[in-house]
Amino acid sequence: MSYSAAENDRRTANILLIGKIAGVNPGTARARVDFGDLGSSDLPVGQLRAGALSFWWMPEIGEQVLVGCPGGDIAQGVILCSIFAGNAPSSDAGVPLIALAGGMIRVDGSIEVTGDVVASGISLVEHVHGGIQTGQSKTRKPE
C-alpha cells in the first residue's frame, strides 16, 4: 500500500472516534479525550445551542464521548455528544429524563408549564394551605 493510500485510510478511520474524557477546562469550553492508544489536545465541546438561546454542559472525566474530526485530523476535532456506556439513567424509553446527579439546573428566563409541577412530593396545582383566614394574614407552608 502506498503512503498516500495509507494516509487516506488513517484519515478516514479518524473522522468519527469514540473516547473517554481525560480532562475538562470549563473556562474555555474544551476537554481532552483519551482514545486508548492516543489522546487529544483540548477540543471544543459542542453544545446543543450556543447563541442567544444557549444550552451549557461540560462532560466529566471518564465520560464516553463521540468526537468528529474534520478530514480525520484529531487536532481539529470537536466533541459532538456523550454516549451512555452501560450507565443509562432509565430503562423507560417513553419518559424523558434529565438526571442531575444531585446537582441543580439553572434557567435564565421564564418557564411556562402546561401541566403540574411536583417538588418534594408537593403539587403546585393540587397542594393545600392550612391556617387560611380572610384579610392580610399569610398562609402556612403548603401540604
From TrEMBL:
<dbReference type="InterPro" id="IPR006531">
    <property type="entry name" value="Gp5/Vgr_OB"/>
</dbReference>
<dbReference type="InterPro" id="IPR013046">
    <property type="entry name" value="GpV/Gp45"/>
</dbReference>
<dbReference type="Pfam" id="PF18946">
    <property type="entry name" value="Apex"/>
</dbReference>
<dbReference type="InterPro" id="IPR037026">
    <property type="entry name" value="Vgr_OB-fold_dom_sf"/>
</dbReference>
<protein>
    <submittedName>
        <fullName>Phage-related baseplate assembly protein</fullName>
    </submittedName>
</protein>
<dbReference type="Pfam" id="PF04717">
    <property type="entry name" value="Phage_base_V"/>
</dbReference>
<feature type="domain" description="Gp5/Type VI secretion system Vgr protein OB-fold">
    <location>
        <begin position="19"/>
        <end position="84"/>
    </location>
</feature>
<dbReference type="InterPro" id="IPR044033">
    <property type="entry name" value="GpV-like_apex"/>
</dbReference>
